[in-house]
Amino acid sequence: MKRNFSLALVVLAATLGGCAANTPANDPSLIGSWKGLRAENGKCQFLSWKNNFKPDGRFTITFFRDAQQTQPIQTEHGTWSAANGKNELRTDGVRLPDVYTYKLINADTVHYVNVASDPSGDCQEDYDFTERRIRG
């Protein structure tokens, strides 16, 4: 009887472990390179950026002072997770994530609304912006 109980625990653990591995994958429509900008007359300081969402759940984003993206400010790296209209970015070395709701306008355009950000971030306002896919 004890052996059957131990076997049942092993099977249960393997089953639960398999469920954890089946968490939803990142939204594949967001994978790739994108560019965006904050409105110059918006709630937050103007910025433009290029980001790259990689299939392995990592991202890189470079911020620029100008819309032409010739004056870089800084580059950040981290992890991203996106599903069901919610995208969460965890920048390496930053305590709390930035959280956005998003809606795909088409395959090359996505609209975001910032709903939460780390208190050390440059803008604490809820703001929205549109990103466009970079092809080629």
From TrEMBL:
Span of the signal peptide: 1-20
Keywords: Signal
Record flagged with keyword Signal: yes
Superkingdom of origin organism: Bacteria
The protein's name: Lipoprotein
Source organism per UniProt: Pseudomonas viciae
Taxonomic path: Bacteria, Pseudomonadati, Pseudomonadota, Gammaproteobacteria, Pseudomonadales
